[in-house]
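Worked example (supplementary).
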Amino acid sequence: MAKAPVLTPQADDFPRWYQDVLAKAELADNGPVRGTMVIRPYGYSLWERMQAEVDARIKDAGAENAYFPLFIPESYLTREAEHVEGFSPELAVVTHAGGKELEEPVVVRPTSETVIGEFMAKWIQSHRDLPLLLNQWANVVRWELRTRIFLRTSEFLWQEGHTAHATQADAAAYAVQILHDVYRDFMVDVLAMPVLIGRKTRQERFAGAINTLACEAMMGDGKALQMGTSHELGQNFAKVFDIAYQDAEGTQQTCWTTSWGVSTRMMGGLIMCHGDDAGLRIPPRLASTQVVVLVIKDADGAAEAAGRLVDELRAAGVRAKLDARTDTSFGRRATDWELKGVPVRIEVGPRDLANGEVTVVRRDTGEKSQATVDGVAATIPGVLDAVQADLLGAATRRRDERTAEVTTIDEAREAAQVGFARIPWATLGEQGEAVLAQDAITVRCLQTPDGQVPASEDEPGVVAVVARAY
RNA sequence: CGGGCUGUAGCGCAGUUUGGUUAGCGCACUUGACUGGGGGUCAAGGGGUCGGAGGUUCAAAUCCUCUCAGCCCGACCA
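After joint prediction of all chains, the assembly is encoded as:
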């Protein structure tokens, strides 16, 4: 007897599937102001895990957390020409406060290069103060017209790193280090997402940057999503905010700065990369709940056995949760945990228990197996590792299957309908980029032939990865 | 800014053409019983300024005018 699907199948309508998952997995709701979002507890628990993992890597890279204000004097934004040009259409500006009109309007930060620049200038005097490596976790506002929860919202949460260095080489190296050691490492190892890394074309560059590096991921429908960026800002901000130092010889020098960020958009990437028709599939290393122990029926000691199992799992370092609800049917609860993408479910019921067994179910494959009550906890870390590896493997396979090597713009346009196309940058060029843009196809990044970040777009052999993007 | 469409229960919708009892349906929700190995079954319930204002009428979700909000297409921008 075929039942109505829990979610709109991905193949029927991918955007609809995405909306369905957000609601049914209790991730997020739309906020009352257009373009804003409410992140629900389960969604936020995943974001907290992302924060923890990214934050640890940022600290390993030597940056320290700080906090700068939400409100920025409007005059700050206008100092850097490209920067203000890029952001002014989407600024939220406060003109009235305290019951009267403000002398100088304040903008709600769309990003914090300007305020942080102002304070870097104050704090940096000597070459001994460099590098200055700062990060902040904050919300930012960009008044977007077309919004989708997590992917593009008017207010979102992120981390923004801001650093100042003595030389261009140091700044460039640090921007690359963040891309590699913080972002790519996190996305591949924790999110199980095989992101591409590369540099952005002039067209796609951050407003005010001299170079933008990015991580790009492929979603389940073949479209691309920018998951994180790292910018070399040259001396653009250093000059206008006078971020300068005295070198060892006693001469005044202008600093070189960088900025880099990842946001709640990664939530959207996670959902659309691994999700299937049954809901989310959360990689174990990210999952806020890695294993749910589900009591099928509270009889013959099932609830007690399940409780002991949860304790054992926690003792073994597994993030485990007990579901002993007796007021909801087994099928409903199984479906709910599948929607939420919990990597492993252990079913404890009287029937199995009579044989001293429990049932272990993998969310990624749906595969069920029997295990002994006494031995199962010890096997779970291995199962979680396998799920983690298989999710990465499946996403990598899909990306590779849907990536075409092409040599003409027409072929690139064709291939981008279902995935990524790799075309020599020398063939495409900025003119070809503009041609593809008419069909909503953009250059996601420029790479060396072996998938590394090129030092410049003019390097021989540079390949443009083009796709439709979110 | 122009064109089109939609506003009815938490969500999704029917009812509007042709005005007429107490405004309906599915899901969700509450209570109880039986259940429980894949969205359980049965029974009994709760929940509505029909986007808002004004008008026509014995009578308006339904007709008229105005208005607000949202969505789509175009234009603008890149």
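Two points are worth noting when inspecting this output. Residues 3-4, 6, 23, 34, 89, 203, 296-299, 326, 328-336, 338, 347, 349-352, 359, 437 of chain A lie near RNA strand B (CB under 10 Å from a C1'). The longest strand of chain A covers residues 155-165.
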